[in-house]
Design a protein that fits this description.
CATH class: Alpha Beta
Radius of gyration: 15 Å
CATH topology: GMP Synthetase, Chain A, domain 3
Strand order of the largest sheet: 1-2-3-4
Largest sheet: 4 strands, mixed
Distance between the termini: 24 Å
Number of helices: 4
Order of helices and strands: EHEEHHEH
CATH architecture: 2-Layer Sandwich
CATH superfamily: Fe-S cluster assembly (FSCA)
Number of domains: 1
Structural class: alpha/beta
Number of strands: 4
């Protein structure tokens, strides 16, 4: 789901493609297939040296008590680091939400089958 996009060189597809490389360390399935990515916001940020992209990822976890929550921030930033013009420290924010709570129906059919939900 794209929340809003005002940046023309990086697309939602670009971001989602990168996020498919972020694998849940416990379940061994990527966070996109797991249905953990609730939204992406891509914008232009004006600086003294020009324009650069800013990316906001709205993410949930399978449970609010997930002990690996802090790892996902780093893994997502690492995955998006290769996008053109992105400064990982300045241009990427990851926000956790549990509204709505994650449910297995949010997974792709393939992910559900792999985890035995079908």
């Amino acid at each position: 789901m794209l929340l809003e996009s005002t940046h023309t060189t990086i697309t939602e597809k670009d971001v989602m493609d990168c996020l498919t490389t972020v694998i849940d360390p416990e379940l061994h399935i990527d966070i996109v297939s797991m249905g953990l990515v609730y939204g992406i916001d891509i914008r232009d940020i004006q600086t003294d040296t020009g324009t650069r992209p800013w990316i906001h990822v709205l993410l949930t976890l399978t449970t609010p008590g997930c002990p690996l929550a802090a790892m996902f921030d780093t893994m997502i930033k690492d995955a998006l680091a290769g996008l053109p013009g992105v400064d990982v420290q300045k241009d990427i924010t990851v926000e956790l939400t549990f509204d709505p709570p994650w449910v297995p129906d949010m997974m792709t059919e393939e992910a559900r089958a792999e985890l035995g939900f079908d």
